[in-house]
């Protein structure tokens, strides 16, 4: 099963490599020429040794041989350098392609996947796992090609020089292959487990950094350290075992190489002694040449064994990345099916939805929203308010029923055109690592500075932006920024003021803003929402008194519907929610 997995992973790797076939051919050519040049050096050295063993030493011939050896060594080194450069280029082109595909995959995955997997684990796959794969791939290109060429060329030369000694080498070779095969099989599963544990470690670190204020507020430092230490200990165990098995390669293959060298030396020495200097017999120079080839022949086995072990780690990481890129994507949009908003009427017909099959959330929800209506959605936590917004924006698809905008089923239009029709302000802010100007212009990139300033004035963000070091050109980000949560939210509101979309969704849009500023922004929202269909999710019921319709949700169903006065007169669930927020407690009454 594991071999089948390896094979399928290698097939995917080859599909990325084939785009760079020309560079691979050039690299192979350079590797072949470089190896053949370096393997010719022992022949010249052997000739030099034979010249030195003669009664009359011809210095000129020896100097010529040394010059030739120097030129060959230099040419081989230059080709090796060029090959390494090409291999680096191939490796990082492939890893760039894989990372691009993985990052692009994030945008096509359903939110259900993102919500159910730790973000640190996903980041680890795209960054750390691809890095590990790149290291293994680079080692494979650099050492595997040259190793194979060296083995084949060395064997050919040794059989040409003396087939008896070459046969000794061939008979001892399977020992090295057996060792490499055994270790690679044992190390793959360990490296795969190591990769999974690294992902867990990254997820823990990411989670703590993202929620560090909460960790400190609840004095959870020791508990989080203990949790991290537990994962760290698990990583230590898996890494130690993986490294132990991989480290066996070098000493065991070196032992086999020493046996090969000893076998060549013993058989060669016997043949030299037996020949006794007869014409055509094995000379001392040829024996020294053989010993050199025995070393060069054995060396690639040691390197290739190391490469195979490293490749097991690389393949284990690559499999995790490819599994991620093969995850099921969102249902594709229909071509040429843009949403055209004429009025903004929204119809929900018998809509049902649940995040998991075990827990039903929204059941048979039907609703008619006329063009330009302001619809407020209220209810206790977990009742389905944000879920309804997710369905309107098609972040999730309904399990049954349908949602229509101006008579068009949102499943029959592109997600881009649907989401582009809404201006959305969420409770959770999101800012790019860019200037204030670029952040505000996110929904309208061609906006002028005057338009941006006007939108910021409408959202009451202009005053604090002027106090920033570089005003509208100040670089900010969502993390590590000196802006308060309320200031970030004002910038997100400014985006909507600038883009002026045909419909609005405000999900706790003023939750982080002080009451005084909130009143001003509510007035600005009132102007913005005029003539636009708007959905407002709010916990503070004072912000939705003026809504045309208030939907009161509980357990995924609309239990009450009407305007503020009508719902208060009913004295039902909404009235109890409202009174709990605004009626003074018995203690305050008696005070």
Compile the SSE list and pairings.
Blueprint lengths: L1 H16 L3 H32 L6 H50 L2 H6 L2 H43 L1 H48 L1 H6 L3 H27 L1 H27 L8 H42 L20 E8 L8 E8 L4 E5 L6 H8 L7 E6 L2 E2 L5 H6 L1 E4 L8 E2 H5 L8 H10 L3 H5 L8 E2 L8 H15 L3 E5 L7 H15 L3 E5 L11 E6 L2 E6 L1 H7 L2 H10 L3 H5 L1
Parallel strand pairs: 3-10, 3-11, 6-9, 9-10
Antiparallel strand pairs: 1-2, 1-4, 4-5, 7-8, 11-12
Helix pairs in contact: 1-10, 2-3, 2-5, 2-10, 3-5, 3-10, 5-6, 5-10, 6-8, 6-9, 6-10, 9-10, 14-16
What is shown here, in short?
With 591 residues, this protein is an alpha/beta fold. Helix content is 65%, strand content 10%. It has 20 helices and 12 strands.
Please name the fourth-level CATH homologous superfamily of the largest domain. ABC transporter type 1, transmembrane domain
Q: Residue share in helices?
A: 55-70%
Adjacency order of strands in the biggest sheet:
6-9-10-3-11-12
Largest sheet at a glance? Answer: 6 strands, mixed
Quaternary organisation: single chain
Regions with little confidence, pLDDT below 50 for 5+ residues: 585-591
Just give the CATH class of the largest domain.
Answer: Mainly Alpha
In round numbers, the mean pLDDT is: 79
Strand percentage, roughly?
Answer: 5-15%
Spatial separation of the terminal alpha carbons: 76 Å
Number of separate domains: 2
Globular, elongated, flat, extended or rod-shaped: what is the shape? elongated
Q: Radius of gyration in whole Å, from Cα? A: 36 Å
Q: Which CATH architecture of the largest domain is right?
A: Up-down Bundle
CATH topology of the largest domain: ABC transporter transmembrane region fold
Structural class determined from secondary elements: alpha/beta
Number of DSSP-assigned strands: 12
Query: How many DSSP helices?
Result: 20
